[in-house]
Amino acid sequence: MGCIYQTEENPHFQYVLGLADDALILGQRWGEWLSKGPTLELDIAASNLALDLIGQANLLLEHAAELEGKGHTADDLAYLRDAHDFRNHWLVEQPNDDWGVTTARMLVFSLYQYCRYEALVKSSDAHLADIVAKALKEVSYHRRFAAEWTIRLGQGTEESNQRIQRGFDMLWRFVPELFETVCWEQTLADDGIAVASGTLQDAWEAEVTLILTQANLSVPKGDAHQFGSRHDGHHTEHLGTLLCELQFLQRSYPTASGAVW
Amino acid sequence: MADDWDLYEVFIRSKRGSSHKHVGSVHAVDSRLALESARDLYTRRSEGESLWVVAAKDILASDPLEGDALFGPAADKIYRHPTFYEIPDEVGKM
Amino acid sequence: MYTTDLRTAEEKAEEARKGVPRSALDTDALEAEFQARIDADAYIEPKDYMPDGYRKTLVRQMSQHAHSEIVGMLPEGCWVGRAPTLKRKMILIAKVQDEAGHGLYLYSAAETLGTSREELVRQLLAGEAKYSTIFNYPTTNWSDVCTIGWLVDGAAITNQIPLCRCSYGPYARAMVKVCKEESFHQRQGYEALLQMMKGTEAQKRMVQDSFDRWFWPSLMMFGPPDSNSAHSSQNMKWKIKRFSNDELRQRFVDATIPQAEFLGVKVPDVIVKNAETDHYDFGELDWDEFMAVVKGGGICASNRIDARKKALEDGTWVRDAASAYAEKQQVATVAAAE
Question: Could you tell me which chain B residue has the CA closest to the CA of C30?
């Protein structure tokens, strides 16, 4: 069965869906920390992050559903697509592992998300620009949170330094995907709707390097370059497992058969 | 949970024009972390727009047993209150 | 020392040197003043004189309450990943987050009496402190999460509203905040159940099943019957308990049964409206089960504590790192100042 999100089919919808899926999947990951955090204060911080991200996902999915124009709701899109129809980056679907890996991922991603949203505030898609303007405040806090914990762990103890370095080393192979500009994305960018991912790389690299240096951490080398989900729906194994949990109730008690939540 | 982290008292100003008010405490390793935890814990429902945190160990509180000595003397200085003075009604509001 | 003992280090050192607490005045007079203050419906504040029993009872009660909030995050938190819609997911995250917050408010209030959170948590993990036995029951379907909101939070609120006027200031203030925030917990749960009852037969069955399992345990949340309650009369005198277990239980049943009927679940046959008293009679509760669960016989008792222990152990290196970092920063600041 072919992926329904071929490039020629409604790239605007796919693009917004990609933004939504990144927020949704990462939000789901943050939700997993609830009641497992290193302190109760961090449990609360983690759930704030989850709430921000799922809130963004909800708004972005609603907008995506409008752009799709097939009468789907945000929940339909979140709960009834299989993995190959998800447009999120590999980075966000990776398991939380420990607090070091989770923090490293959050730094990499929230810096990226911030750059992206900052550019999209000027999108000619006014609805998208609105959503992103609100989300930018949240991500601005996420970025700060991740940077502070990166520095705290990097400079803390030998163990914490090793653990967060391990996080960056493990996840670095998913970085190139963040900055791939695909042809349809370039077209959208030319129309002022999207931002070409490749254009964000320099600013992102400068910031991440600055923070890692301050944290006594080394910048890993990234050369693994594979085609990502936004091209053709390829994911790592982890997304399927995540969706099992996310979608279980909607699949077992389908709204289409009369279930009401 | 926080093994031997210090206690910080948290104060919130709910809106500009009001003063900061004590709301509770958090545990933190330093004041910066205390501020972030306080933000996460005490402003989940837009309770404030400004936060102070102060290490509990830096607060000196008065002793309730000395309450009379400290605050009693003010009680009989009734001439400090406007109602102490009788002004004839004809003078109007003053 | 990380309690809200609001003395300076110098004061404490001074007192230790003298070896005489400043409060070593006439204890009888102090106690009389203390009780008079309570009788006048005034508040006791952290540094005030209070009898040891009052302090101990409060620490026990507040920490049990705090532990219940924290352990209570587990049965619901495990459904965050599976919540059926994005809206329900956000609501549940916010609710479980509130519980962490309420736990912290209460630990913070308990600490004003001189026992640290670290010590309170140690007691919980060592099995020396109790938490609400209701959380030793498992959440086996989604409806349980909603029913917990309706019944468990509902019972908790019934218990807590009178505590907003309890005699200990920090506890009363914490309860005001908790109650204000918790009313959303009960409403969201009931509303979610109402929605499910509009759905399929399978969903209705889920709701009924969860009502059947949670109803009786929620009544037990009010504690043993008055005839068998160890601390009641002294606590009433101290105004850290304002109504008896049975009074509150009856109040909850009277409020809940009409809600259950409106929802459309079948309530147990034994529950009937007593025309004479205008209250619902509900017969005897299974106190053997209650006592067994109190003593750790619930399906989930050890899972709950293990989960808390694991979170704490897994996070040790993070807390150590934060402490080490703070120390380094402090050294650096001092060095820069010199």
Answer: B65
- Give me the pLDDT at residue C250, please: 97
CB contact under 8 A, A39 and B1: yes
B2 touches chain A (CB under 8 A): yes
| C45–B64 C-beta distance less than 8 A | yes
Tell me the chain B residues in contact with residue C104 when contact means C-beta distances shorter than 8 Å: 24, 26, 41
Task: Give CA separation, A222 vs A176, A211, C72, in Å.
Answer: 7, 17, 43
Quickly name the fold that domain A11-219+235-252 has.
Ferritin (1.20.1260)
Q: Does B30 touch chain C (CB under 8 A)?
A: yes
Q: Which two tokens stand for residue A218?
A: 């080394």
User: Contacts of residue C307 in chain A, CB cutoff 8 Å?
Assistant: 35-36
pTM: 0.91
The Cα–Cα gap between C2 and A258 comes to: 55
Find the mean pLDDT for residues C50-59. Answer: 96
Domain ranges within chain B, ordered by starting residue: 2-92
Q: Which CATH superfamily is domain B2-92 in?
A: Phenylacetic acid degradation B (3.10.20.520)
Q: How many CA atoms lie within 13 A of A231 on its CB side?
A: 13
A198-255 tens-digit pLDDT:
999 999 999 999 999 999 999 998 666 565 556 667 899 999 999 999 999 999 999 9
Cβ A48–B41 below 8 Å, yes or no?
no
C25 contact residues in B (CB cutoff 8 A): 65
Task: Answer yes or no: is pLDDT of A5 > 60.
Answer: no
| Cβ within 8 Å of residue C9, ≥6 positions away | B57
